[in-house]
Amino acid sequence: MGINRTASKGIAVVAAAICVSTTVLTGSALAATQFPSGTAGDIRVDWSGVWANANRLEDITLQLCDATPGDKDQATAQLQGYVTMGGDASIRTAPSIFRVPVGDEACMAWRDVFLTYFQQDERLAYARVDFFGSRTKEHRQTKWVPNPRLRG
After folding, report:
1. Signal peptide position in this chain (predicted)?
2. N or C: which end of the chain has fewer CB within 10 A?
3. Cα(first)–Cα(last) distance of the chain, in Å?
């Protein structure tokens, strides 16, 4: 995976392994916090992770399911961060794309993913998953998950 212009400006996402999965989470995902899932039409997202510090969400396990994988409208997801600096804030979409391929498999899972924002004085205040069909392009999101490392 090459680093593109967006990643070099501050957001990094790394998927260490890709595998077909059911809803069973194992390994480091057991210690992670389960975050609110999202469903829209035939697409479902389940995810979990561990907030490491003010700038990093790690040990993310993301499961993306497509109830109709043969319809060519591929279930697609991207991680998003709500990044703050001083009084400014913006939503940033990570460059990595997670997609269930057209075919027989209804779910894919990615483990050991992390989301980090690393420019000076900026904080990853919230994270969520943006998901959509590759053809319909109607975006839905999971609920924002606050970073507990930034609380008062």
Report:
1. 1-31
2. C
3. 37
pTM: 0.80
Spatial separation of the C-alpha atoms in residues 94 and 116, rounded to whole Å: 9
Residue 36 token pair = 């609110």
Residue with tokens 């998953």: 129
Q: How many residues in the chain?
A: 152
Name 61's bridge partners. Answer: 48
Q: State the CB neighbour count (10 A cutoff) for residue 128.
A: 21
Pairing verdict, β 123-133 and 140-141: antiparallel
Q: Check: CB of residue 102 under 8 Å from CB of residue 73.
A: no
Q: What residues contact residue 48 under an 8 Å CB cut-off, 6+ apart? A: 25, 29, 32, 33, 34, 35, 59, 60, 61
Q: Three-state SS across 30-80?
A: HCCEEEEEEEECCEEEEEEEEEEECCEEEEEEEEEEECCHHHCCCEEEEEE
